[in-house]
Amino acid sequence: MTIAFYMDENVHRGITDGLRMRGVDVITVQEDKRIGFSDILILDRANELTRVLFSQDDDFLVEAKRRQLGKIDFIGIIYAHKLKISVGDCIRDLEIIAKAASWEELANSVQYLPL
């Protein structure tokens, strides 16, 4: 089973486009008409859609920690700092995760890129 992604509104469009060209299932916050929603609501929406959240916004790390400490389940977050990974490397790593990871590996955790 492959992993589907929910892309935060701050993610570079080239990452989304590159993943789609590689057959990875991606939907953006913009396409879902959720621009400007709080991090809590965005992560809740990712859970509703059964999609791992990909973000380059470190505020999601705070929300993930809050949920981990409160034992509140979430589908998982993949985080990449914009200055520490290129668009191409981000696409490569997300494609690997989408095609090789399981939901169990990502649930209630934060995966950092680059791998």
List the helices and strands and how they pair.
Elements: E1 5-7, H1 13-21, E2 26-28, H2 39-49, E3 52-55, H3 59-69, E4 77-80, H4 87-100, H5 103-106, E5 110-113
Parallel strand pairs: 1-2, 1-3, 3-4, 4-5
Low-confidence stretches: none
Reported for the largest beta sheet, the result is:
5 strands, parallel
In the residues, how many domains can be counted?
1
Radius of gyration: 13 Å
The helix count comes to 5
Q: Give the rounded overall mean pLDDT.
A: 96
Q: Give me the secondary-structure category.
A: alpha/beta
Straight-line distance between termini: 20 Å
How many β-strands, per DSSP?
5
User: Strand-and-helix sequence, N→C?
Assistant: EHEHEHEHHE
Estimate what percentage of residues fall within beta strands.
Answer: 15-25%
Q: What proportion of the residues is helical, as a percent range?
A: 40-55%
User: Order of strands across the biggest sheet?
Assistant: 2-1-3-4-5
- How would you sum up the global shape? globular
Protein name: DUF5615 domain-containing protein
Organism: Crocosphaera chwakensis CCY0110
Descriptive notes:
Helix 1 packs across helix 4. Strand 3, helix 3 and strand 4 form a beta-alpha-beta unit. This protein has a five-stranded parallel β-sheet, with helices on both faces. It is α/β, with parallel strands linked by helices and 115 residues long. 43% of the residues lie in helices and 16% in strands. It has one domain (5-113). Pfam families: DUF5615 (PF18480). InterPro entries: DUF5615. This is DUF5615 domain-containing protein. Residues 5-62 form the DUF5615 domain.
